[in-house]
Design brief:
Radius of gyration: 18 Å
Shape: elongated
Structural class: alpha/beta
Order of helices and strands: EHEEEEHEEEHHH
CATH topology of the largest domain: 2,3-Dihydroxybiphenyl 1,2-Dioxygenase, domain 1
Helix content: 25-40%
Number of domains: 2
CATH class of the largest domain: Alpha Beta
Number of strands: 8
Length: 158
């Protein structure tokens, strides 16, 4: 069977990003890192190839220069069990130069886009009552970081 694994191209700080991601996301680990030899001009010691797991899923990464920066066209979706999990992930990912974005999205300091989404939000926007679901969506559209209590209150409002 053929595997499909996301491969992340970093400018020159893949090792720091991988360390950060594997510490932030439970069930994560660095599998291997190989580095460019010193003889490679401008790349000596940087990550040539890294294999790591986030929450048990495989990823690859490399340092390869600024030619292809990350865009919002690809993001990592984090399912959060509760508000504390949302707050923990959000705070860590926007720290040190990350950027808040609308509707639970953000960019980390490396420019990689993330969606920090509480499971409860998905329940509320899929509510069988279309009016409750609509109110939940409208509340979410006003937020950067998702506030589960505020979305629940909006959904319940008559």
């Amino acid at each position: 069977m053929t595997d499909v694994t996301p491969f992340l191209w970093f400018d020159d700080d893949a090792a720091a990003a991988i360390d950060f991601y594997t510490e932030l996301i439970p069930g994560s680990e660095i599998v291997s890192i190989s580095r460019y030899p010193d003889e490679v001009p401008g790349m000596g010691g940087k990550v040539m190839h890294a294999h790591f797991r986030l929450a048990g899923r495989d990823y690859f990464a490399m340092d390869a220069g600024p030619q292809f920066p990350f865009t919002e066209a690809v993001s990592l979706y984090v399912s959060c069990a509760d508000q504390a999990d949302v707050d923990r992930c959000w705070t860590a990912l926007v720290a040190d130069g990350g950027q808040e974005q609308p509707c639970g999205w953000l960019k980390d300091r490396w420019g990689l886009s993330w969606q920090i989404i509480p499971d409860r939000l998905m329940e509320l926007i899929r509510d069988p009552d279309p009016q409750r679901a609509h109110r939940a969506v409208q509340a979410m559209l006003q937020m950067s970081k998702i506030d589960i209590g505020a979305v629940e209150a909006a959904a319940a409002a008559a």
